[in-house]
Amino acid sequence: MLVIGLTGGIASGKSTVSKRLHDEYNITIIDADKIAREIVQPGLPAYNKIVKYFGNKVNNLVLPDRSLNRPALGAYVFQNKDELKVLNKITHGQVRKEMIWLLFRSWFRMEAMVVLDVPLLFEAGLDLICGTTLCVFCDPKLQLERLMSRNPELSRTECEKRIANQMPTEEKIARSDYSLSNDSTVEALYEEISQVISRVRPTKLTTILQYFPPIGALFALKIVVQRWWEQRSNSSTSKDKQS
To answer: What are the boundaries of the signal sequence (predicted)?
Structure first.
């Protein structure tokens, strides 16, 4: 089973790509953002931890229906990187567990491909388990315009901070196997997606072989070692540039 890691900056068009992969190519999508919303439902462990830690810091954190006031929480943590790290620490572990379970479920169904739709793919180290990685990007000015249009409740400054709090787009592109430009029309983006899928789609024989435990284990080990080496090389390159 080919695991495709899909990432991209906020408001870059990642959801459009994800929907296309599901609707046109019938690929299962494991959406990290969706899981993140599900694990903070009232009464669940992550919800309780968030309320306990942020309850006295975020005004009106808990709404009348007991759900979290996500816009208020987001506005608060994106003003403070340390608080954002606390929130990520509370949620990321449980999101990762659910994603791994869904991957196993797809594997048991003998699916040829599955997509991990993760904004923080590289930051969370989840690229280690991906056979290939895709990054959706667009012009920074266009990205800001789209974010402001999508989230009118956010000021321009708040939108700029949310973009700045993510890994730079240039770094995501450099670390990805394929990049998809979303500066033009939806049709142009769809064509780029088609070209990538035609390149990475595993043959039926490859898919069948990967479901034999010894061969599948070798495929998985090859991917992890390759990704680990790429991470190490990227880290060394970054240190050299800094020095």
So the answer is: none
